[in-house]
Structure formats: structure tokens, C-alpha cells
UniProtKB/TrEMBL annotation, chain A:
Keywords: Antibiotic resistance, ATP-binding, Cell membrane, Membrane, Nucleotide-binding, Translocase, Transport. It holds the Pfam family ABC_tran. This is ATP-binding cassette domain-containing protein. It comes from Nakamurella leprariae. Residues 312-332 are annotated as: Disordered. It is a peripheral membrane protein.
TrEMBL record, chain B:
This is Transport permease protein. It comes from the Bacteria. Coiled coil: none annotated. The keyword Membrane applies. The keyword Calcium does not apply. It comes from Nakamurella leprariae. Belongs to the ABC-2 integral membrane protein family. GO terms for cellular component: ATP-binding cassette (ABC) transporter complex. Pfam families: ABC2_membrane (PF01061). It is found in: Cell membrane; Membrane. GO terms for molecular function: ABC-type transporter activity.
Length: 332, 267
């Protein structure tokens, strides 16, 4: 197994914020690593260091054995980078954007042209290729951005939140494009806030929080850390939750969790459909149930278990837009 | 590829990109040519009617000054564009490519020479229409234009550093206007400096813009023996003095800007 990306003890501070607090990573060649974490976790900072855009305060990073500080130029020649915000030149056409990137990788002119055309084709931009990219939708810009980072057939690709801000349909399309790249053997480091995305695209996942890696493994391994399946009920009236707890006592592996705000009851169980049938029998007509089911844990549960808070949504239900700087101070 | 060859090739790729952009967003060009036309007309007909100069028509005296002001403003476009590229994340993309470190800045400053050439052509035509004439050889006339372009080019490297530092095109525009306007006014650009209050007079005499304007006026034969330059070294040796400024600006700001470029972080 060849290691494509190796990172050890990476530390980066910005004034009072410690963006990275000792990160270690190892990405085998030809695999996809998902760097998963909420806003402000340090994902972009890590990517910027690995892609030679930022100098770390401590630690080292190599890409295909090349040190990102000492061999920055050679690293740049073998990587492709798509930043968190689409970096396309709005006043150039899609084709011209790709052509410029290819020329700056010092590829021969003829090769750049044919490669640009085939990438436009591959990313479903062939028809728009000769239009200035200012006219593109968000999803198209993202795809053009990724196409530009692929122009020189990089062996290692960095994608920083490739689907953030895309509508659900564009997101699924983007996943298909990324999955196709994986098929071609490109090593990919991908950051995301979406647990589903890491689950779907990545071979290995590293969960980052406050500049540290708090867990790593495959999606299944991470899910196993959280434990098995859970029995969940949603009821019409929060006052019914204790009634449910009473009716189902003894059925679970642990005490149930009652969420009054969402009127849900959740309890770890084992035994599959049998438990579900038993539970329904016991509840019978005692409370009005909107929804019931057995749920296998997803990565959201993993995050909740590991950090004690949800990954994407804060308790008040708003997406976490607060700068992590504030949060970091609270915990210190 | 040798590193010099690479720097040139990459610089040209970026220049081409910037020129394409100018063609697609012609507003920049329109405004960078409209304002000098406006200045030529306003100054010629308003100031020109009130400022009698011995031995030289005001419009002849004026043109070198307007040219100098215009190309210096033109060089500030470098800063605006770089600030804009920063906010759009393009500088990050460039920095992640295996291209020459100097290329983005070389490509930018080269393209801005193009803008200045176009606005100079428009101004020449406007000037000729309102009665301006060059009284020198073709070579001297061209030397005057060359001096203006070189001066503006060296200033654009200072603008590059500022543009990369402020990171916001709007802030850059406001700041550069506030700075460039007085610098080009406290000089011999529009009126002789003889009657300036003492402090302003000294500033004007040592202002490199004054030397540039004086040099161009002399090359274009737009002066008169009755209007000798003040007896201070910079204006007695205007080509040398403005040339030293250009050299100084380039020596200081080319390396500083390239260094800044290598370190900037978009957000
Ligand atoms: N250039 C910077 N200056 C100051 N603080 C920064 C800078 N870049 C990032 N940070 C801070 O570092 C932390 C990690 O940020 P980032 O790497 O962007 O996180 P993520 O990409 O996971 O959202 C945040 O607290 C952020 O505010
Ligand atoms: Mg980020």
C-alpha cells in the first residue's frame, strides 16, 4: 500500500484561535478520505496546508512523498485543488477557464484543448462550454471548478466541501461525478459537513472537531461505536411520552431518551422486527402514534455520541453559523 | 522550461486572461477613457479661460498633466482587479497551480499597460480636437508616451501590493482615489507651481508627478522660455528624477508584491 497523503502533528493558530490542534492523517493511494466536521472544525485550514496555500505552525504534511513546504512546486504539479468557494473566472467561458488552468500546469496546447473539451463533456458542461461562466448556475460553477482541478490528471485531488450550497439534485449529480473519479483511481481527500456525503463517497472517515481528530474508521466502524439499532416513536402529544416509557419498560437495553420538543421517544434495543411487534402490541391504543420505526444509527448519531452535540444543526434548530472562535473560547 | 521562460509564458497566459476580461466587461475601458475626455474638456474650457500662461497655450500646457493623472489612475486598476480576484477565490486557485510566482502580478500589470494605451489614444484624439499640438520630433513625442507608460507601470506594482493587502475592491477604489487625487493635484499638472503656498510648493517641486509632467512637456515642446521650471534639482533634471522614482518603485514593490502574493489568504 502506497500512502498518497501523510500528515502528522499539524498545528495552526490564528491569533487567538487554534484552528488545528495536532492532526494526523494517512490516505492510501487510490482511496477517498472524508474529513468530516462542523463549520469551524478546521477542515479548510487542513486542506490549505496540504495544498501548499498555508504554512503550518508545527507538524508536517507530504503528498506522494513530497513535503508541502520544501517541495511546494512539485506538490502543486501533482495535485488538483477545489476550494470551498468556486474559483472560476466569471468573465471567461468554461472552456477558457479550463484552458487557462491547463496552460498554467504547462501542458502542451493541443493536449489542453482536447482535455478541456472532454472534461466539459464529462461534467455535463459541453453545451455551456463556450458561454461565459458568469451565466452558470451554482452547480455548474462547482463542476467547472472541479473540472479545472482535474485538467492535468492529478494523482491526488482535494475537494473542500464540494456540495455545500448546492440544491439536493445538484448534490446527487455531484456525488455521481465524484464517484466516477474514484473509479479512475484518483486519491481524494474530501471535506464535508454532511454525514451522508462522507458515508456515501469515502472509504475512510476522520471526524474533526475543534482542530482535532476525534474519531476515525470506516462508516460502519463509526456506526458500531454508537451501538446498535434504536426503537423510535413520534407521538402527537408530548405528555404521552412518559406513558410510552411506562408501557415499554424492560423492552430496551437502556433507559429511553424522551425528547419533548420533537415529541419523540428513542431507546436502544436489540431483536429487530420482533421487538417492534412487541412494542406495538404493548402500546396498543394507549397513545396516538404518528410514526414508529427501528432505526440503524447513521453518522449523525455518531457525531452526537462523540461530541455531545449535533453536527449540522444546533439545539435551537438554526444551522451553526457562529464562528468557531467563540466556541473554542467557551470550552477553554 | 527555464524558470525565466516559464515566468514569461505564465505571465502571458494571465495577461491574455485579463485582456479577455477587459474586452468582455468594457465598462472599465469606457470609464477609464471617459473621465480623461471630461477632464480635457473641463480644464481646457474652464481653467483655460482664466489661466493665461506666458508663451504657451493652456491646452498645450495642460495635456501632459492630464496624461500623467490618467495613467496613474489607470495603474490603480491593478489593485482593484487583484482585490477582486482575491475575493472571488481566484488567487487561491492560481497559488495552487505549479505556475511562476510572478505570473499573476506580471499578467495583471501588463494587461493594465494595455488599458493605459487605449485611454492614451482616446486622449490624444480629444486633445488634438481641442487644439493641442506636439512641437517636437516623432521620437520625442513617443519618448513622452513611453515615459508615461513606464511610470504608470512602476506605480502599478505599488497598487498591486495595496490591492493584495486590502482585499476589497471597494475599499481599494475609495482609498486609491483619496490618495491619487491630491498627489496628482499638488504638482505642476494643471497650473504652474510658482504661486503655491510654501509648503505645497516644496511638496509639488519634489513630487515625482511634477517631474514626470515636466519631462513630458519638454519632450513634447509644450513649454515656453517665459515659463521656466522652478530652480530645483528634480525639475531641472525631470527625466532622471522621474526615472529614479520608477526604478525605486520597481525595486521595492516588485519583490514586496510577489512576497505578499505568496502569503495572501483569501478569507
Ligand atoms: N485566516 C484566518 N484568520 C483567523 N482565523 C481563521 C482564519 N481561517 C480560519 N480561521 C479560524 O480557524 C478555525 C477553523 O476554520 P476552518 O479551517 O475554515 O474550518 P472549517 O473549514 O472546518 O469550517 C475557525 O475558528 C476559523 O474562524
Ligand atoms: Mg471550510
Amino acid at each position: 500500500m502506497t500512502v498518497a497523503i501523510e500528515v502528522s502533528g499539524l498545528v495552526k493558530r490564528f491569533k487567538r484561535t487554534t484552528a488545528l490542534d495536532g492532526i494526523d492523517l494517512e490516505v492510501p493511494e487510490g482511496t477517498v478520505l472524508g474529513l468530516l466536521g462542523p463549520n469551524g472544525a478546521g477542515k479548510t485550514t487542513a486542506v490549505r496546508i496540504m495544498t501548499t496555500l498555508l504554512k503550518p505552525d508545527a507538524g508536517r504534511a507530504t503528498v506522494l512523498g513530497l513535503d508541502v513546504l520544501r517541495d511546494a512546486d512539485r506538490v502543486r504539479a501533482v495535485i488538483g485543488v477545489t476550494g470551498q468557494y468556486a474559483a472560476v473566472d466569471e468573465y471567461l467561458t468554461g472552456f477558457e477557464n479550463l484552458e487557462m488552468a491547463g496552460r498554467l500546469y504547462h501542458l502542451p496546447r493541443a493536449e489542453v484543448r482536447s482535455r478541456a473539451r472532454s472534461l466539459l463533456e464529462q461534467f455535463d458542461l459541453a453545451d455551456a462550454g463556450d458561454r461565459i461562466s458568469k451565466t452558470y448556475s451554482g452547480g455548474m460553477r462547482r463542476r467547472l471548478d472541479i473540472a479545472a482541478s482535474l485538467i492535468a490528471r492529478p494523482r491526488v485531488l482535494f475537494l473542500d466541501e464540494p456540495t455545500t450550497g448546492l440544491d439536493p439534485r445538484s448534490r446527487i449529480t455531484m456525488w455521481e461525478f465524484i464517484a466516477a473519479l474514484v473509479g479512475e483511481g484518483t486519491t481524494i481527500l474530501l471535506t464535508t459537513q454532511y454525514l451522508e456525503e462522507a458515508d456515501r463517497l469515502a472509504d475512510g472517515i476522520a471526524v474533526v472537531d475543534h482542530g482535532r481528530i476525534i474519531a476515525r474508521g470506516t462508516a460502519d466502524e463509526l456506526k458500531a461505536q454508537v451501538g446498535g439499532e434504536r426503537l423510535e416513536f413520534t407521538v402527537t402529544d408530548a405528555a404521552d411520552l412518559p406513558v410510552l416509557a411506562d408501557a415499554l419498560s424492560g423492552l430496551g437495553l437502556d433507559r429511553p431518551n424522551l425528547d419533548e420538543a420533537n415529541r419523540t421517544f428513542s431507546m436502544p434495543v436489540s431483536g429487530g422486527a420482533g421487538v417492534l411487534r412487541e412494542a406495538l402490541d404493548r402500546v396498543a391504543d394507549r397513545v396516538t402514534v404518528i410514526d414508529v420505526g427501528l432505526r440503524r444509527p447513521d453518522l449523525d448519531d455518531v457525531f452526537l455520541t462523540l461530541t455531545g452535540r449535533a453536527a449540522e444543526v444546533q439545539p435551537d434548530g438554526k444551522p451553526d453559523e457562529r464562528p468557531a472562535r467563540d466556541r473554542a473560547e467557551v470550552t477553554r | 522550461m527555464s524558470s525565466v521562460g516559464m515566468a514569461v509564458a505564465d505571465g502571458l497566459v494571465v495577461t491574455k486572461r485579463n485582456l479577455l476580461k477587459i474586452r468582455r466587461v468594457p465598462d472599465v475601458l469606457v470609464f477609464s477613457t471617459l473621465s480623461p475626455i471630461m477632464f480635457v474638456l473641463l480644464f481646457t474650457y474652464i481653467f483655460g479661460s482664466a489661466i493665461p500662461l506666458p508663451g504657451v497655450d493652456y491646452v498645450d500646457f495642460l495635456m501632459a498633466g492630464i496624461f500623467a493623472q490618467t495613467v496613474v489612475f489607470g495603474s490603480s486598476f491593478t489593485g482593484t482587479s487583484l482585490a477582486e480576484d482575491m475575493t472571488k477565490g481566484l488567487i487561491d486557485r492560481f497559488r495552487s497551480l505549479p505556475m511562476a510566482r510572478s505570473a499573476v502580478l506580471v499578467g495583471r500589470t501588463f494587461a493594465d499597460v494595455g488599458i493605459n494605451v487605449v485611454s492614451m489614444v482616446v486622449m490624444v484624439i480629444t486633445g488634438l480636437l481641442v487644439g493641442w499640438r506636439i512641437n517636437g520630433t516623432v521620437l520625442e513625442a513617443l519618448a513622452g508616451f513611453g515615459l508615461l507608460l513606464l511610470f504608470a507601470y512602476s506605480v502599478s506594482w505599488l497598487m498591486a501590493l495595496i490591492g493584495l493587502s486590502v482585499r476589497s475592491p471597494e475599499v481599494f477604489n475609495n482609498a486609491s482615489f483619496i490618495v491619487i487625487f491630491p498627489i496628482t493635484f499638488i504638482a505642476n499638472t494643471f497650473v504652474p507651481t510658482n504661486n503655491f503656498p510654501t509648503v505645497l510648493k516644496v511638496v509639488a517641486e519634489w513630487n515625482p508627478i511634477s517631474a514626470l509632467v515636466q519631462a513630458v512637456r519638454e519632450l513634447w515642446g509644450n513649454t515656453s522660455p517665459q515659463l521656466p521650471p522652478p530652480d530645483v534639482w528634480p525639475l531641472q533634471h525631470p527625466v532622471l528624477y522621474s526615472g529614479l522614482w520608477m526604478l525605486g518603485l520597481l525595486l521595492v514593490f516588485v519583490p514586496l508584491s510577489i512576497r505578499k502574493y505568496q502569503r495572501v489568504a483569501a478569507r
